[in-house]
């Protein structure tokens, strides 16, 4: 009696195909490999594309590759860009002295990938636009998907489109993970105090079918969420630059793009299948592959936002530097994990500045309450 799992045959067939192609990527057993077809498919929360939409994009992969490679050296005027020109390679995990992504998460057996892709955009944008690599927000996918996206479920099933959910992030916002912890069962309850602990997205930007625009946005503002077609071999990806080796598709999936590399001809992505898949949960995918720049659907599917506003108490951290303006008397504080933040004006601001000065001199941290881009309250921590 054979003890081989069916996935071993799948992996062997993919390995043979990759060998014929010069082994552009690595295949092996991942945490999804031994799952049945249904358990794999349930993780794909974007509706599968129609044949007509796919056929209409037959020339797209080559066009997207050419456009992506042609963007190097273009002038970049975004306010948060590290330089004035797009480089040939960029990675939000390794820039400006820090890592501006948050840890890889696991959506479990639920079609909630779009919520994870959109939340990754908010978390990364909040850190990158503030140059606060230590900010490390942990926002609630449960609030976004079960609390806001569920009424729009497609055909009564799990799934959502990123333009809908990112629009919710602009209008309603997303609370923090501890106010509605994620479970793939859909359980849990929203903390009624959530309006006082929330992050909003600013200005949703449509980047669909625009590789140069995707690069400009990542370089200037942070991650981009994108939909892609998932082929059967993607479940067994362990590293390298992914290109599909089979024509068997399983559905659509939402991820976050966090960088690129022109020498390798690829985007760098962040998935939501845990760290036991891919390159520790991240992956590289060839330009034009799997329709990642323009998913086969007549709606925006590749999106970013230009900033975030916060309203929350944040974890205790040190005040590294303080500054008071001679012109308007407003104070500024450089906080360890938040970056430069403006203090509220008047008597309240003066009181905050005094507390921060004492904390800095004494070497103890403070807990900041931030509203939009302003430090409204400070609590000292002894």
TrEMBL record:
Name of the protein described by the UniProt record: Peptidase C1A papain C-terminal domain-containing protein
SUPFAM superfamilies linked: Cysteine proteinases
GO biological process: proteolysis
Domain Peptidase C1A papain C-terminal intervals: 86-301
Pfam families (UniProt xref): Peptidase_C1
Highest taxon of source: Bacteria
Gene3D superfamilies: Cysteine proteinases
Organism listed in the record: Amycolatopsis bartoniae
InterPro entries reported for this sequence: Papain-like_cys_pep_sf, Pept_asp_AS, Pept_his_AS, Peptidase_C1A, Peptidase_C1A_C, Peptidase_C1A_papain-like
Family assignment from sequence similarity: Belongs to the peptidase C1 family.
Claim: Disulfide bond is one of the keywords in the record: yes
Record bears the keyword Chaperone: no
The entry's keywords: Disulfide bond
GO MF assignments: cysteine-type peptidase activity
């Amino acid at each position: 009696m054979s003890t081989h799992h069916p996935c071993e045959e799948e992996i062997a067939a993919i390995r043979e195909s990759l060998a014929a192609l010069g082994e552009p990527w690595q295949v092996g057993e991942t945490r999804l490999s031994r799952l049945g077809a249904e358990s794999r498919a349930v993780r794909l929360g974007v509706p599968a594309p129609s044949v007509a939409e796919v056929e209409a994009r037959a020339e797209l992969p080559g066009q997207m590759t050419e456009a992506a490679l042609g963007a190097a050296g273009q002038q970049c005027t975004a306010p948060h860009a590290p330089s004035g020109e797009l480089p040939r390679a960029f990675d939000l995990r390794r820039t400006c002295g820090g890592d501006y992504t948050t840890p890889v998460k696991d959506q479990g057996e639920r079609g909630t990938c779009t919520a994870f892709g959109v939340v990754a955009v908010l978390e990364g944008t909040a850190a990158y636009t503030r140059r606060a690599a230590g900010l490390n927000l942990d926002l609630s996918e449960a609030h976004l998907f079960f609390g806001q996206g569920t009424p729009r479920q497609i055909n009564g099933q799990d799934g959502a489109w990123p333009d809908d959910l990112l629009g919710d992030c602009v209008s309603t916002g997303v609370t923090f993970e501890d106010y509605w912890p994620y479970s793939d069962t859909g359980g849990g309850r929203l903390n009624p105090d959530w309006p006082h602990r929330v992050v909003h997205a600013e200005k949703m930007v449509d980047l669909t079918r625009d590789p140069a625009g995707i690069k400009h946005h990542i370089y200037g503002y942070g991650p981009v969420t994108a939909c892609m077609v998932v082929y059967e071999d993607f479940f067994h990806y362990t590293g390298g630059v992914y290109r599909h080796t089979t024509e068997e598709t399983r559905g659509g999936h939402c991820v976050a793009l966090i960088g690129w590399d022109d020498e390798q001809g690829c985007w760098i992505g962040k998935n939501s299948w845990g760290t036991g898949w891919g390159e520790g949960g991240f992956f590289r995918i060839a330009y034009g592959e799997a329709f990642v720049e323009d998913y086969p659907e007549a709606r925006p599917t590749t999106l970013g936002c230009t900033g975030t506003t916060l309203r929350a108490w944040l974890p205790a951290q040190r005040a590294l530097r303080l500054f008071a303006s001679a012109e308007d008397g407003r104070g500024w504080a450089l906080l360890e994990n938040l970056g430069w933040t403006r203090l509220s004006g008047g008597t309240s601001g003066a009181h905050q500045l005094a507390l921060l000065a004492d904390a800095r001199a004494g070497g103890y941290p403070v807990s900041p309450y931030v509203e939009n881009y302003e430090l409204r309250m400070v609590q000292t921590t002894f």
